Known about the structure:
By secondary structure, this protein is of the alpha/beta class. It has helices at residues 20-34, 66-80, 106-120, 134-146, 177-188, 203-214; strands at 10-15, 38-47, 51-55, 60-64, 84-91, 124-128, 155-159, 171-175, 221-229.
Amino acid sequence: MKPMKYENQRVLIMAPHADDEIIGCGGVIQKYLQNESAVRVVIASFVYGNYPKYDKEKKQYETYEGSVRRNELEHSHQLIGIQDVRILYSETKSVHYHGKLDALPKIELVSKIEREIEQFQPTVIYLPTKTKHQDHTAVHEAVLTAARPYFWNGSLIVYETDGEFSFQPNFFVPLTEEETRKKAEALKAYGTQTGSVRHPTNPEFLKVKAKFRGQSIYSDFAEAFEIRRLHG
């Protein structure tokens, strides 16, 4: 396989929620940006109102404000250098999408993704793998449909987050210690989503995963991906 091209690319990162783009692609995004490629992050569902989240350690739900989440997103992306962000579904106090993307008509979600592809004209799309979270699976399936070869035929690459059902990586991107550190810091910026050291959204856990993935290619750190289609 030829080395991945990071220059002269138009990279579309499809994220179910704000933080998935960092967990799965926080390292490779840095490489594209360092080589002056265009990177756009599209977040499928974003909560602007208040939202309850279960805290495993406290064994209770706690509510966070949408304005806090927005500040977290901006800070996280500033650390990485991401400047182009779009949101497909904005959630308010009266309109709820988070955790319900699978309940939408599939054609509706597919059509929104198609419009993003038409507008941005990416050369490569990164999409989340299927996981235990229904939103991840809904976005995964919708992107596969939108990215059908006779509509768009660039490279299609699947990234990992947590709770994967059948993720089988066949492509690994080595990361430097500095890229790994910045990725962990960008995740740490999502304070409302950070769990204990055993939780997949903990920065230290992210470093452990990067070390584990690095072993597959004899590198100190790495990110793992599953190639669905590679356009040379």
